[in-house]
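$ ./design --mode recover --in tokens.txt
reading tokens...
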């Protein structure tokens, strides 16, 4: 299969592009690389659990203005139809998400306001415990709190897609069970292939698939291989594991390319937690957008037909977005 012709045909969806203020020095160059590689849609992390509403709102407003000034290259989208139209017009579709509920001040009523401003999905608990539930590194592994359950209900009402990446196992299972709409793991890999708390186990994979959701495979080596290396073959291994377990319609791309290595090194060195939770010291190995043709060709050799490939590249996530977002 010719990878170039498939990229031309596909909506290529990337779920996790770091875009908090710490990531922006290298950001514009990275966007150009995603565009050149043929990615159709990029979701940008505009705020994290440790952020609060006012600075996140300021940052989002500044970034919306930055993209609107480059409307010949980018289109900030509201709907799945917008993503398809941007592809047709040669633009890269842009949306935003929150990795944690801190920017919503842990207040369910703020979900609708963030949705109206362009946030299309949110993580509820990021790595550690917050008022909504436990993150994946909390030893207690408690599930959603009463407040977390209220967040799920309000997100469903508003159309905000829910992302269970970074959540604890029981928190993620509660989100999946309580949500009336499909849930995603936007950038998580397979625990059975790499024993890391950030990865998702078979119970989580089966639960999210049973409700129609999708898992985007993370390309960071710490989540892929025992020696923390990365590469296309490692990603294919994780994609194939999920496809064999629950079907190729439940897997996609969440490469989470770390183009802001100095910031991650500073974060790693700021305290012992990352080392204690199994992370190597940065720089971290990952897969860059230019590897997209190699990834397609590897999946093709693995026996994935065009329908499955189009799904993995983006149609699977588009299906879930269409079931969540307002039309």
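writing sequence...
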């Amino acid at each position: 299969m010719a990878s170039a012709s498939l990229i031309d045909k596909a909506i290529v969806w990337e779920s996790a592009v770091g875009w908090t203020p710490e990531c922006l020095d290298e950001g514009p160059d990275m966007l150009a690389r995603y565009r050149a590689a043929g990615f159709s849609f990029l979701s940008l992390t505009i705020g994290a659990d440790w952020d609060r509403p006012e600075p996140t709102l300021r940052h989002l407003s500044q970034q919306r203005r930055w993209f609107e000034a480059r409307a010949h290259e980018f289109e900030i989208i509201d709907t799945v139809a917008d993503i398809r139209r941007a592809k047709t017009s040669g633009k890269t579709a842009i949306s935003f998400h929150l990795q944690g509920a801190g920017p919503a001040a842990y207040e369910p009523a703020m979900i609708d306001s963030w949705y109206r401003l362009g946030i299309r999905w949110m993580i509820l608990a990021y790595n550690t415990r917050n008022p909504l539930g436990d993150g994946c590194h909390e030893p207690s592994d408690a599930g959603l709190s009463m407040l977390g359950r209220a967040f799920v209900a309000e997100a469903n009402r508003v159309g905000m897609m829910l992302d269970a990446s970074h959540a604890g196992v029981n928190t993620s299972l509660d989100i999946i069970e309580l949500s009336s709409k499909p849930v995603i793991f936007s950038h998580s890999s397979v625990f059975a292939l790499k024993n890391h708390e950030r990865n998702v186990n078979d119970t989580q994979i089966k639960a999210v698939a049973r409700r129609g959701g999708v898992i985007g495979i993370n390309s960071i080596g710490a989540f892929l291989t025992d020696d923390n290396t990365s590469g296309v073959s490692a990603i294919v291994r994780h994609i194939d594991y999920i496809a064999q377990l629950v079907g190729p319609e439940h897997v996609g791309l969440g490469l989470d390319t770390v183009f802001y290595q100095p910031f991650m090194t500073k974060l790693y060195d700021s305290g012992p937690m990352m080392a204690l939770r199994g992370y190597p010291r940065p720089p971290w190995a990952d897969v860059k957008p230019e590897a997209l043709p190699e990834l397609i060709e590897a999946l093709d050799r693995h026996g994935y037909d065009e329908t499955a490939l189009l799904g993995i590249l983006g149609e699977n996530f588009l299906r879930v977005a269409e079931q969540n977002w307002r039309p």
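exit 0
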